[in-house]
Specification:
This protein is mainly alpha-helical. It has helices at about 1-75, 75-115, 120-125, 130-155, 175-180. The chain has a domain at about 75-155.
Length: about 180
């Protein structure tokens, strides 16, 4: 009879635990829903902010284009040609500057690789003038190697082993090592 009661008690406990587990699952599901809603709200806020920035940028561009069009409409043919030529020259100079900086960075990376230095520093050391780039790299190399040496020294620094300088009379370290 006790076994049956014990079994019934265990069954009752198991049933209660089952209810607890299902309620825990409901709480987890509820927490997941709250988390999903929080993520959705954060994403929607970010999207709204990005959309506002995009619309503002687009509005600025449209306004600038309208002003340029109005200015061009009021200009004579010669003035219009001169304005367009200046605009093309400005665009060309921007592209040229971009090309020069990319080329200088490439050359700096090539020089860094040749000297077994990390090429990730190329954008910091690059200059339009090749001589300046070489000077930058040599100065960087000196400082970089100093930093590596200091780091190694710091890591290898330790305590020297303590050796007793006192030798008892009549003892021979060689014979002591042999166990004699």
């Amino acid at each position: 009879m006790d076994k049956e009661k014990g079994t019934l008690k265990n069954d009752a406990q198991n049933k209660n635990e089952g209810h607890k587990k299902s309620s825990d699952k409901n709480n987890e599901g509820h927490k997941n829903d709250e988390l999903k809603e929080l993520v959705k709200s954060l994403i929607s806020e970010e999207l709204a902010g990005a959309k506002q920035a995009w619309e503002k940028d687009m509005e600025t561009r449209v306004t600038a284009e309208r002003e340029d069009a109005a200015r061009l409409a009021s200009m004579s043919a010669e003035e219009r040609a001169k304005f367009e030529m200046e605009k093309k020259q400005k665009d060309f100079e921007e592209e040229r500057q971009q090309y020069v900086s990319e080329r200088a960075e490439f050359e700096a990376a090539k020089e860094l690789a040749a000297q077994n230095l990390p090429v990730t520093f190329a954008h910091m050391l690059a200059d339009a003038d090749k001589e300046t780039t070489v000077k930058n790299i040599s100065a960087f190399k000196a400082e970089y190697l100093k930093a590596i040496e200091a780091g190694l020294y710091e890591r290898l620094k330790g305590k020297t082993p303590k050796i007793s300088r006192e030798v008892p009379e009549g003892s021979d370290p060689f014979l002591n090592g042999l166990g004699i």
